[in-house]
Amino acid sequence: MRVGFGYDSHCFSDTDRPLVLGGVVIPGFPALKAHSDGDVVIHSVVDAILGAAAIGDIGMHFPDTEERWHRADSTLILSAAVDMVRKAGYRIGNLDITIVCEKPKIRPYADAMCERLAFLLGVEGRAVSIKGKTNEKMDDVGAGKGIVVYAAVLLEEL
Ligand SMILES: [Zn+2]
Prior knowledge:
The protein is built from five helices and six strands, in the order E-E-E-H-H-H-E-H-E-H-E. It is α+β, with helices and mostly antiparallel strands and 158 residues long. It has one domain: CATH 3.30.1330.50. The strands form two sheets. Strands 1-6-4-5 form a four-stranded mixed beta sheet. Strands 2-3 form a two-stranded antiparallel sheet. Helix 1 packs parallel to helix 3. The protein is globular and about 45 Å long. The structure holds zinc ion (ZN).
């Protein structure tokens, strides 16, 4: 078994595009600023699973200098990363994800995100855990300027 850890952060943009977290559209909030669709949850998960297999990171495999990842649906990046991890000889065990933001409230969307991520990762729903927290009004995250995500993952040898 191998453990991996991922981190990502993005600030809110002022576009009309909707916020996407864990592959789930969250109405009423703008997308996060990023080269791709800004799905900070998926980016953190991708870094965690690539890290667990010790095969690099998201910036190395999906560079933001490449046009094909511009506004890219991050679920495509996740599926590609899952393929790389399988080729390296591992399957996903379970994930524990913590989303830190003042808004939106995560709990109403947590089940949908778990289901979506489990589907993309090829695991059972209960293999994915999503927890939402605020930053207790501290720093820029506490001022509601963006979202930070931490992800831990366990890989099992195939
Ligand atoms: Zn990102």
